[in-house]
Amino acid sequence: MTAEPTTRPTAEQSAAPAWPVPPREGWTVDDLHTLPGLPPHTELIDGSLVFVSPQRRFHNIMIRLLTNGLATDVPPTHRVYNEMTVVIDRSNGPEPDVLVVRKEAVGGLTQTSFPVADVVLAVEVVSPDSESRDRDTKPHKYAAAGIEHFWLVEMAGEDDHAVVRVYERDPVTRTYTCTGVHRDRLKVSVPYPVDIDLSGIDEL
Question: Starting at the edge strand that comes first in sequence, how are the strands of the sheet with 119-125 ordered?
Fold first, then answer.
C-alpha cells in the first residue's frame, strides 16, 4: 500500500515544465534524437541543450529567401535544407538555419540529421538570443569540423535591411576568412553560383 503524500503540489508547481536533468558528462547527440518532449529545433552545444526563442519575422523571411535562392540553382550533386541537425561529434549537434549538403548524404524521409563531413555550407540568421552562438561558438565549431563555407545573416540599419557576410575556410588555420559583405544583392560563385536579391524583404 502506498501512503498518501502529506503535501500536494500547488497549481503553479503543477504547471511548471519538467526540465530534463542532464547527466554528469552532459547530453549526447543520441539523447538529442531520443529525449521525449524536447521543443522543436532544440540544439546540442558542448553537451548542453539549447532551446530557441520565438522567431522574428526577419528570421523567418531570410530562411525562406536563402533556402529558395540556393535551391534555384543547386547542382544535381547537392541538396538544400533548413533547420536540420548537423552531427559534429557526440556532444555537438547544432542546427544551422540553412544548409547545403552533398546528395549522397540524403536518406529516407525520416532522416533527422546530417554528418558534418557532408555539409558544404552552413548559414546562421542572427536572433537577439543567439548572437554569441551565431557569431562565435558555431562558426568556430563549423570551421574546425571542416565545413568549407559559412554565411552570417544579420538585420542592420534604421531600415532593418539584411546584411550577409560570406566566409570561406582557411585549410591551414582551420578558421573562416570573410570574403564579402552583401546588402542588396548576394552574388557568389562558391559553393556554386548563386544570385539572390536581398532587397524588398518587407514585401515577403
Answer: 78-82, 98-102, 119-125, 149-156, 161-170, 175-182
